[in-house]
Amino acid sequence: MTPEILADGFAFLEGPRWRDGALWMSDMHGDAVYRLTLDGHYEKILDVPNQPSGLGWLPNGNMLIVSMLDKKILRRTPEGVVTEHADISALVPERINEMHVDPEGRAWIGNFGFGLDEGEPPQSTVLVRVDPNGDACVVAEELFFPNGTTTLADQTTLIVAETFGRKLTAFDIGTSGELTGRRVWAEMPERAVPDGICLDAEGGIWVASPTTGEALRIVEGGEVTARIDTGRMAIATALGGDDGKTLFIMTSEATARAPCREAMSASVEYVKVDVPAA
């Protein structure tokens, strides 16, 4: 399977989510959130001056947006009114990144944990849960760069991509949102690391691996059932389209802010797959 380009000319794309007939995504180094339709047309939804990343929706239709540098979660109404949903700066040591919002409206948020751009050695960090009312707490520790996150179909299992841990880690979700039963769901293949992830209807997870330039479909235990070569860094994935079988892959030639803003070469690539979105 060879992906095609749906749209390009962005700085660095993160947090893709399919909703209401379109792909929503953050241009992290372009400081904006966009909405992209299958004909390649896109529109800017809002500016996020402190760098947007993960996206999600509350049950009432309000969108949540990660604001990375000030470590806040923003809330946008369908009418376009933007307010602060939560400030988690007291809970995390470094900038925040990806986020999964589950059907109950709980947001699960990762963070860098160390100064990646400053060349600091990797250090473990925490995972934060923000409840629908904006209350926040630490729910897991000792994670190495918690990045893409999803919940399995039954909503009782949380999967976290530990980028510098090179694995997908699973937790059981308790009735009050507490996490227990930590275990390795899948180790990554040689040289691959997990970035953004998405779940399909058969429990497979599509994992973007920037180090190997591919999207991998991985099942519990670590078996790779499909590979899609992007030829450059694969940053994040999302399933969507009219039948749920379009896999969107965010790709880039760089990750640092200055080169990305200079090149403006980040792309949305897509390919049809066999199993639809969960």
Classify the helix fraction into a percent range: under 10%
- Biggest sheet descriptor: 4 strands, antiparallel
Gyration radius over CA = 17 Å
Q: Tally the helices: what do you get?
A: 1
Describe the structure.
This protein is mainly beta and 278 residues long. The protein is built from one helix and 24 strands. It has a four-stranded antiparallel β-sheet with strand order 1-24-23-22, with helices on one face. It has a four-stranded antiparallel β-sheet with strand order 2-3-4-5, with no helix packed on it. The radius of gyration is 17 Å and the shape is globular.
Characteristics of this structure?
single chain; 278 residues; mainly beta; four-stranded antiparallel beta sheet; 24 strands; globular
Task: Please summarize what this structure is.
The protein is mostly beta strands and 278 residues long.
SSE map:
Elements: E1 4-10, E2 13-19, E3 22-27, E4 32-36, E5 42-47, E6 52-57, E7 63-67, E8 72-76, E9 82-87, E10 96-101, E11 107-111, E12 125-130, E13 136-143, E14 146-151, E15 157-162, E16 167-173, E17 179-187, E18 197-199, E19 205-209, E20 214-218, E21 224-229, E22 233-240, E23 246-252, H1 257-263, E24 266-272
Antiparallel strand pairs: 1-24, 2-3, 3-4, 4-5, 6-7, 7-8, 8-9, 10-11, 11-12, 12-13, 14-15, 15-16, 16-17, 18-19, 19-20, 20-21, 22-23, 23-24
